[in-house]
Amino acid sequence: MKNVPKVSLTDVLGVFWKGLRPKKWSFFLTIILFLANSVIYLFVPLQYKKFFDLLSAGEDRTLVAQELIHIITLIAIIHSMVWVTFRSGMFVMSSIEAGAMANLKQISFNHMIDHSHSFFANNFSGALVQKVNRFSRAFEKLYDTLLFNLIPLVVNVIGILLIIFLQKPEMGYVVLCWILVAMIFSYIFSRWKLKYDLEAASADSATTARLADTISNQSTVSAFTGSSYEYDGFKLVTNNQARIQNRNWNIGSVLDAVLSGLIFIVEFYLFYFAIKYWSRDLISVGTFILIQLYILSLAHRLWDFNRIVRSIYESFADAKEMVEILKLPHEIQDLPNSKTLKVEAGSIKFEDVSFGFNEDRSVLENINLNIGSGESGSHRTIRGGKVHNSQTPYKSS
């Protein structure tokens, strides 16, 4: 595709919003529900801290048992609230996602189908189909990432940091350093990896295009005994895609290795400080439980940060090709101030019309043809459409 328009992340998000706008209030409702879900869940570890503090207090077991039952009842209520908010959000999300994906496919189709014949002649039909499908799936991936990864990450980082700082500021600084190092490294690494994600998306399009167009031209392949050529060609593109995909997976494994190493380090230091404070009777046994639960939760969410950045850039890579087509002006357009055509009679008339390739290879010269109303062919306007889309007359009176 020549003269490809430049596409930014803002352009992609703008088109996504067009597909999402009809359900914008439902969209905001899902944000509220998933925010509430993540905030409510932060209170569960605090209740377990109280639970184990009571167990280790050495007080009268009859009295302690009543308090413990009260705590686990409160935990059950919190879990019920988490369940209600999450399931409600899922039902609303499903409706939004299905509708928005359909809207995006319609936006893509409506713009693409109005391109000229030369646009479709210069692009594999299989690749165009793949771009439309990947575009809608890119929205699905981005929306899922927002609800299931980004919102819980933000809530957990802010909430857990606040709670740990209130327990012991020194441990809070350890957690803060861990979060900053993990996020900065993940972001820089994922930005660097973007060029490889774009290459993988391009390789996937090439494979799909080769497969679709070979299948659609099967009769031609058989007629001209081109099977061997197609075998080798498809093997070449699939092997190239496999090589690129394998490289991308290996690059991702490096990031996973670094993040898992950081988790081991911060867990060791937090428990080291916790033991020191416990030996001086500065923290309770329940604090160990609180730290462990929050470390596991933060580790899971920080691992998600890598997935968040990766999903955003992969979604951008998947959507970019379709947005390029959406930003590409149609080759055949009405002239400024052109009048709307009104068909008053079903006749076709050519006066001194000439057709050719690039104005230097003449095909038809000075055609004069008049098909009157009611004659065969006068009602078949598709013929005129095909001529219009295939070749633009370079001379007519």
Overview of this protein structure:
- It is a multi-pass membrane protein.
- It is found in: Cell membrane.
- One of its GO terms (molecular function) is ABC-type oligopeptide transporter activity.
- Residues 375-397 are annotated as: Disordered.
- Its main location: membrane.
- This protein has 397 residues and is mostly helical.
- It has two domains: 9-327, ABC transporter type 1, transmembrane domain (ABC transporter transmembrane region fold, Up-down Bundle), CATH 1.20.1560.10; 348-390, no CATH class.
- The chain contains eleven helices and two strands; from the N terminus they run ααααααααααββα.
- The protein has helices spanning 9-20, 24-41, 43-55, 61-112, 117-121, 125-167, 169-216, 218-223, 227-279, 285-327, 381-390, and strands at 348-357, 361-371.
- The protein has a two-stranded antiparallel sheet with strand order 1-2.
- A hairpin with a 3-residue loop joins strand 1 and strand 2 (361-371).
- Helix 2 (24-41) runs parallel beside helix 6 (125-167) and helix 7 runs antiparallel to helix 9 (227-279).
- The radius of gyration is 31 Å and the shape is elongated.
- The two termini are 33 Å apart.
